[in-house]
UniProtKB/TrEMBL annotation:
Residues 1-17 form the signal peptide. This is MscS family membrane protein. It comes from Lutibacter maritimus. Belongs to the MscS (TC 1.A.23) family. It is found in: Cell membrane. It is a multi-pass membrane protein. Keywords: Cell membrane, Membrane, Signal, Transmembrane, Transmembrane helix. One of its GO terms (cellular component) is plasma membrane. Residues 333-396 form the Mechanosensitive ion channel MscS domain. The chain crosses the membrane at residues 163-183, 217-237, 243-273, 285-303, 309-330. One of its GO terms (molecular function) is mechanosensitive monoatomic ion channel activity.
């Protein structure tokens, strides 16, 4: 039994020995793995790691390799080797450069990359030449000195965090808290100043929005401050990766909040401008633009959050584009209506509150939305017209009329004397001339003909007040004045009737009205009109 156990022990030792990692520079994956593997605590051989550095040797190459790892660890940049290419002929054609290279972290560290030189892959000469500048930009000047003054007991660790690092995190948190209260007032004053320089006006809504905007801006500054000093604590890669991921998520969320508040401030300013303009369609554009910009900010922020969790930005954009095309194809009518909405706001054929006639629809424009326009008919019912169709209709905008025309015929009895007809027409003309609600330079009051049962007087006037309610009030006033004039003159309005003539009927005479045609009396009545 002991011999069998000894055999398996020797066999396992042989297998582990066979899996011993060797220096491999054949492809990007192998080179990066070689560099980092030989700088781990349980496999620390900096001389082998230094072989990934091109153009340097000995201690100088080792120092560059170590600095490269510290930079990646300090920024919490953990390499996912499942995504690093293993093709020895891998060609990175991104950007303006074409060649055999692989950038480890294109967005965070674009200057650190490996490239094919000869038959092997090395960290590029450009990377090694900039390593000192990158190192200084990542680690504050006091980092090395801080490491030298830490006593032995300070290196005791818990959860991969040493005692002195816990103390450093506490100090960093206290500094951030103090800076928060200091920066809050400073940033608020700066934002107020910028707002006043851009727009020379302010109100309570703008002040409230700027006050709400101050806090996330201050927090963004504090996150930048923490991210700048955090590498000096030399935290473990796993800890740094977690902290930087949390900070990047908070940064994205705060930026989303900042842009949403900026949209709110912009829309408040634009809303005030829209209210100052004559057209009401600008007022309706405010909520539409607000919803659109808000949607853009939220979608952009969501895509950014996806990239923080390792999703390739190109894949996200491509997926969003393909998804957008699919949605557009599946909802062509919605897209057509949206384009129609854009055309309505560009052409501005009507405004909110205008009475329009479009095809078989007629009503007051109440709302212009993304997809449709809402009309309120005269019977208070609602027409919901798709904007794609409305943009192609012939729209008769009654709301853009300079005046509201009113035309009718006044029918008076056939037996009205000509003198009274003239006096009645002159009196109506004077009523219109003295009425402030009508045009006194463009109207018609004429005896135009003989109707079936009445003499016809044309009344054609133009009311100056454009809304429907005011038009009806103007009609009421005009009608009442005409009725008063007719009563004073003794003019009778006709109603549908038929006269039957029976000749030679004994002792029967036609009915005659006792009209008073005294010229002085009629002239006095006309002169009394005020």
């Amino acid at each position: 039994m002991k011999k069998i156990l000894l055999f398996f022990l020797l066999l396992s030792s042989t297998l582990f020995a066979q899996k011993k990692v060797k220096v491999d520079l054949s492809n990007p994956n192998a080179t990066i793995y070689t560099h980092l593997y030989f700088l781990q605590d349980d496999s620390y051989q900096p001389s082998k790691s230094a072989q990934t550095i091109y153009g340097y040797s000995g201690k100088e190459a080792e120092e560059i390799a170590i600095k490269l790892k510290k930079i990646l660890d300090g920024k919490g940049l953990k390499i996912d080797f499942s995504k690093v290419p293993t093709d020895k002929m891998y060609a990175d054609t991104s950007g303006f450069k074409i060649g055999y290279k692989y950038v480890l972290f294109p967005s965070q560290m674009p200057d650190i990359y490996v490239e094919k030189i000869g038959g092997n892959w090395y960290y590029s000469p450009e990377t090694t030449s900039k390593i000192n500048d990158i190192y200084i930009s990542v680690f504050p000047w006091y980092t090395e000195k801080l490491q030298q003054i830490i006593p032995e007991f300070g290196h005791r660790s818990f959860l991969k965090i040493e005692l002195w690092q816990f103390f450093g995190i506490l100090i960093l948190g206290l500094l951030s808290l103090v800076l928060f209260y200091i920066l809050r007032k400073i940033v608020y004053l700066i934002l107020r100043r910028i707002q006043y320089l851009l727009v020379h006006k302010t109100n309570d809504k703008i002040n409230l929005s700027i006050r709400k905007l101050t806090r996330p801006v201050v927090l963004l500054l504090l996150i930048w401050f923490i991210k700048s000093l955090l590498p000096s604590l030399m935290l473990h890669l796993e800890v740094n990766t977690f902290i930087f991921l949390a900070l990047n998520i908070m940064t994205t969320v705060f930026w989303i909040y900042v842009f949403l508040k900026l949209v709110q401030v912009i829309m408040i300013i634009y809303g005030d401008y829209a209210e100052s303009t004559h057209g009401k369609l600008d007022d309706q554009l405010v909520p539409i633009v607000d919803n659109f910009l808000t949607g853009v900010v939220i979608i952009g922020g969501f895509l950014k959050l996806l990239t923080l969790f390792g999703v390739d930005p190109v894949t996200v954009i491509a997926g969003a584009s393909i998804g957008g095309i699919a949605i557009a194809l599946a909802s062509q009518d919605t897209v057509k209506n949206f384009i129609g909405t854009i055309m309505i706001f560009i052409d501005k054929p009507f405004h909110i509150g205008d009475w329009i006639e479009a095809g078989s629809f007629a009503g007051t424009v109440e709302k212009v939305g993304f997809r449709s326009t809402r009309l309120r008919a005269a019977d208070t019912s609602i027409f919901q017209i798709p904007n794609s169709g409305l943009s192609e209709m012939v729209v008769n905008n009654k709301g853009l009329r300079a005046y509201r025309r009113y035309q009718t015929n006044l029918g008076i009895r056939y037996d009205t004397p000509p003198e009274l007809i003239d006096a009645f027409i002159i009196g109506i003309r004077k009523i219109i001339e003295l009425d402030s609600g009508t045009r006194n330079d463009a109207f018609n009051v004429e005896f135009i003909g003989f109707g079936d049962f009445s003499l016809l007087i044309l009344l054609n006037v133009y009311f100056t007040k454009l809304d429907w309610d005011s038009e009806q009030a103007s009609k009421h006033k005009l009608h009442m004045e005409i009725l008063k004039l007719a009563k004073e003159l003794g003019v009778e309005f006709a109603f549908p009737s038929t006269t039957l003539m029976i000749e030679q009927f004994p002792d029967k005479k036609a009915i005659t009205m006792p009209y008073d045609i005294d010229k002085e009396k009629t002239q006095k009545i006309i002169d009394s009109i005020k």
